[in-house]
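G., the chain you wanted modeled:
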Amino acid sequence: MISVEQGEMDDLAEVDEIINKVLLLYTMNGLSEYGTLDKWKIQKTAFFNQYDAQVKRIKGINYQFFKWTHGPMSAEIVKDLDLFNQIGFVELKGQNKAIEAITKEGKELVSQMSEFIDSGENAPIIDHLSGWIHHLGEYTGRELRDLSHRCQVPYRDSTAKIDDIPDGTPLLNPIKLRDVSYEFEIPKEWIRTLDLMFSYRYPEIRETLETPFKAKELLTWSEVFESE
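Predicted structure as tokens:
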């Protein structure tokens, strides 16, 4: 694979944002084994995993969550799910555009990424995430929403049930690197390709990427658009 020079990293999306998308897609793929997906189930699984991970000093999924009417919600997850829909990694259904399933292409990407997702130093992080997927997989999104309302979390100088906390209150912030014992990592040679794939322009460049991606050769943005 082509290596990434430090200067090129400045032009890529934030690595933490790419990691979040990788682990969110992994979570959705795991939850899909238990039936239909929905936004509440995805949001609450990510929240419960991240909350417990931070207690254990694990930096994996790392979003910001606020309290809203339906419990802990992350605006960043909403944006990432919209992106996954636009680039063909999830399917929506109905007038409310509910998430129905991860697509074949989304599953294939998770399979391709398995070479780094659950290997080496990432293994403890994925084991932790997989445990939460297994634990919550049988619940419906509505059940997880109701469960989250009853959870006690730190609030001001004490604790409170999430349902009793005012809407708009921050519930969980991304963990800082200095506070972690385990940190999820993506090989540099993968970051470039994922920066391309996790983009609203991915449908335009899918064919350009297909052959080198299967051959494990990675391209820069300039190389992709020079070939158009």
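Residues 1-12, 224-228 have pLDDT under 50 and may be disordered.

Shout if anything looks off.
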